[in-house]
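Q: How would the structure tokens look for this protein?
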Amino acid sequence: MLRQTHTFAEMEVSTLTFTEICGRLKDADYQHAIMEDGGRVVLDMHGIALTSENVGATIEGFYVCGFMFNPERTAVLLVRKKKPAWQAGKLNGIGGGIEDGESPTDAMVREFLEETGVQTFEDDWACTVLLEHGKNFVWFFRSISPMFYGPKHGSSHEDIVQTNLDWLVASSEDRIMKNLRWLVPLSNDDDVAFPIRVVDRTTPGDMERKG
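A: Here is the predicted structure in token form.
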């Protein structure tokens, strides 16, 4: 049920998918949807989490990051980064910045194609985590697909790595972006009601320098 209140809308979303929420917001041309805790999530028109603390806050960077799992759910595709320098040599999720006019899902489809050469579609991705860290906001997605297998030839010329989940959780910080050790298993968990909003209040670091 969608109800307009001034420039805001309130929508009960406990039975809706993330894609359906964003679609309804765009179709209704609402600026924001304010949804509170207790079985509901907090999103604006592009899925940005909002609370009384950060509605007026300035978010400078908007990003997506995706994890494609094999059908057996034992491995995930990651990219071995060449740049920026602080990520070089480490495994990270596949993604990048959201461009003007894109929804987060649109950006995920585009970034995955650019980095892997594999065409996916909006319905292939489900949002799992909405992460706010410093002045950046990241939508994390998952896909469970046989497209996991096969050659990957992206325009970024970075290696796409089939990564065993047991190895990932036990890996050291010099080999993988450290937050992937909890983001990837969380995104692979079917017992979680997604999307989950996470506000990282630690000193801005990895996400602050993401690019």
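Helices lie at 18-28, 104-116, 165-170, 180-187.

Confidence is low (pLDDT under 50) at residues 1-16, 25-57, 204-211.

Upvote if useful.
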